[in-house]
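Hello forum,

I keep getting stuck at the same step: I have a sequence, I want structure tokens, and every attempt I make locally crashes halfway through. Rather than fight my setup again tonight, could one of you with a working pipeline run this one for me? It's a single chain of 329 residues.
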Amino acid sequence: MVFILIVLTWLAMQFWGGAAVFQRDDYFIRWHQWLDISYRNKLGETVAVALLLLIPVFALALLLHILGGWFFGLAGVLINIAVLLYACGRGDFIGKLEAYRDSFNHSDPEAVRHAADKYFNLSEFDPESSSVEGKDFTSAHASIRRSISYQAYERWFPVVFWFLILGAPGALFYRLCQIVSGRDYSLTDDTALIADPTGDENDWDAESYAENANAIVGILDWLPSRIWAFGFALCADFNAFMDVLRDQFMAVNSVKSLLEQINLAAIYGSAYAAYVADAVVDDSAINTQGSTSEIDADKAKNELDVMRQINSRVMISLLGLIAVISILA
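Reply #2:
Ran it on my machine without issues. Output:
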């Protein structure tokens, strides 16, 4: 049954454009807002963050304990399905990736930057990055490529990983941490969440929680990101991935750096280091400075095509591994 639930999430992420019907974060954001306004000054920020994240998780665990066995276990299955789909990444990742790729057909740098901000808003998915508007083409595309590398991973695998380890509460905890970090949330009415319930405007501070939540996400991402990287090693250039893992496996820097490098290794093999966003790259190696010539557009589209294909293959490989573990367990 666990494997069937995981297959449903895989189908939702790969073929159904996500699980938007289950992914409404309004109630959690309102809970976040109320707790911040009412208790942060009384309890302190650390306690407030703990309550913010743990009360919904313990409430879910209690609900499963009480109702999980009802109707021959059907109630527990339905709750697990709903929570697991809720915990998956927001939005239609495949659709956004294709739309961004199509923007290169216009041979217009502004069209590319506009699509990048529209479909992969870095200020939403990566609080450490700013908008790509105003950046040269190389910087803009490198920033989006890093964002895509992370979103391809976080939308499904870490959720499934923590579901297998800790059940539905673990999957929920991971997604709530992502929401509080400011990376990923879905609302039905943004403007309805700005006013303080007590009547004061803009009196709560969501951003002050992001640092603690980001630290937790970094811890939660460490192990599943390495497993995801090994999946790349099995599906593409093994030697290139071993080079990345030797450098990054025990590193404590951003998970995004590891994920970006393994995607670049899938595209460029052992020459991946020249294309890492943080590296100093000679213009002769990457001739994309300030324009999107036909060659540059083709190179960018090829990168996106390979990233989509390899990430899909890794998902299928890990799904097969989970199936084998489920049979043997």
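The two ends are 12 Å apart (CA to CA). If your local run keeps crashing, start a new thread with the error log.
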